[in-house]
């Protein structure tokens, strides 16, 4: 968007600059908002960036790049730099350089979000949240402990009328095809969205809820199946629960591959069908679900990672660090 429309980038930057200047903060806190980070530089306000490792400029990039950035990737840097220089701010080699704050807080650990020691970041561990009075509904609590409980989180199944790269309906379809009427309980959540009508009637062993409290459900279930979002990965690992991931975009693939490398789950890659819909090998997915459920090594690995996460301070540590930056103490 920014790289294609210089006037939009200029106008949007002006709005950000006016807003931050009028508010006059001691520190700007942002999570990969490009123009917010640029504005902090323009106004010379300390920036605390709260990001996952992949979005820090010192990252080696997504795992399928194998540490080597491909040549010829499109970049919005020329447009961003043109706008930045109009405000007297320094140019950047890549837009991602703007995301490195005066304080860079990584919402993961060196295992889940590896960065070189020279990156100068602060790991705060996962920041996962649920309401203080959050409780699982009675129907979840009533599920028999003698039958495995699989939590299928698809995220938003559809983002528009036509298929889009972000759609996660493939996760729902895979779960129905592989787990429908199997000897498991399936709790299906869709991120406050309804199940698309095209899915039809859910199998008898499926229970749908638009939302369930994440940390509580991750602790209750025996396996998570999801689209690979960083928060979903962190929620599962924090609870010591293994996962089978169907990543729907490239960032999610990177998260999934890291989880699999930790031994805490498996990944099933979708492919684009002729109709633009993502498809997976249902037999592969089914086999990996049963493998992760039945081989204790996956849960042991997830629990080991969960234990290692406890040495990090999470949201409270992040808040303390930001307050110190605002007070000029870091």
- Biggest sheet: strands side by side, in what order? 7-6-5-8-9-10
CATH class descriptor of the largest domain:
Alpha Beta
Q: What is the structural class? A: alpha/beta
Q: Residue share in helices?
A: 25-40%
Could you say what the CATH architecture of the largest domain is? 3-Layer(aba) Sandwich
Termini separation (Å)?
A: 35 Å
Q: Low-confidence runs (pLDDT<50, min 5 residues)?
A: none
Order of helices and strands: HEHEHEEHEHEEHEHEHEEEHHH
| Number of DSSP strand runs | 12
* CATH fold assignment of the largest domain: Rossmann fold
Spatial shape: globular
Count of DSSP H/I helices: 11
Based on CA atoms alone, the radius of gyration comes out at 21 Å
Superfamily (CATH H level) name of the largest domain: Glycogen Phosphorylase B
**What composes the largest sheet?**
6 strands, parallel
Report the average pLDDT across residues: 92
Number of domains: 2
Strand composition percent? 5-15%
The quaternary state of the protein chains shown equals single chain
Quick overview:
The strands form 3 sheets. The protein has a 6-stranded parallel beta sheet, with helices on both faces. The protein has 330 residues and is of the alpha/beta class. It folds into 2 domains: 6-125 and 312-326, 3-Layer(aba) Sandwich (Rossmann fold), CATH 3.40.50.2000; 138-309, 3-Layer(aba) Sandwich (Rossmann fold), CATH 3.40.50.
């Amino acid at each position: 968007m920014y790289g294609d429309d210089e006037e939009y980038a200029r106008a949007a930057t002006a709005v950000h600059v006016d807003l931050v200047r009028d508010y006059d903060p001691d520190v700007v806190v942002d999570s990969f908002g490009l123009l917010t980070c640029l504005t902090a530089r323009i106004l010379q306000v300390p920036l605390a960036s709260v990001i996952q490792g992949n979005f820090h400029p010192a990252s080696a990039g997504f795992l399928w790049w194998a540490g080597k950035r491909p040549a010829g990737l499109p970049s919005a840097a020329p447009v961003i730099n043109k706008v930045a220089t109009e405000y007297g701010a320094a140019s950047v080699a890549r837009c991602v350089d703007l995301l490195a704050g005066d304080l860079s807080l990584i919402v993961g650990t060196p295992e889940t979000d590896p960065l070189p020691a020279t990156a100068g970041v602060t790991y705060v561990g996962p920041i996962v949240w649920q309401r203080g009075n959050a409780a699982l509904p009675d129907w979840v609590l009533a599920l028999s402990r003698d039958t495995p409980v699989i939590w299928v989180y698809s995220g938003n199944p559809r983002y528009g009328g036509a298929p889009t790269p972000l759609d996660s309906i493939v996760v729902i379809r895979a779960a129905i095809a592989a787990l429908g009427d199997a000897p498991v309980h399936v709790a299906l959540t869709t991120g406050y969205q309804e199940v698309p009508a095209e899915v039809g009637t859910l199998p008898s062993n499926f229970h749908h809820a638009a939302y369930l409290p994440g940390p509580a459900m991750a602790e209750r279930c025996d396996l998570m199946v999801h689209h690979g979002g960083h928060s979903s990965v962190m929620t599962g690992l924090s609870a010591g629960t293994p996962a089978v991931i169907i990543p729907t975009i490239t960032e999610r693939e990177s998260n999934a591959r890291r989880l699999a490398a930790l031994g805490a789950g498996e990944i099933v890659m979708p492919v684009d069908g002729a109709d633009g819909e993502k498809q997976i090998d249902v037999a592969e997915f089914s086999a990996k679900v049963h493998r992760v459920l039945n081989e204790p090594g996956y849960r042991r690995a997830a629990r080991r990672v969960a234990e290692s996460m406890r040495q990090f301070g999470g949201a409270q540590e992040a808040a303390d660090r930001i307050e110190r930056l605002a007070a000029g103490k870091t």
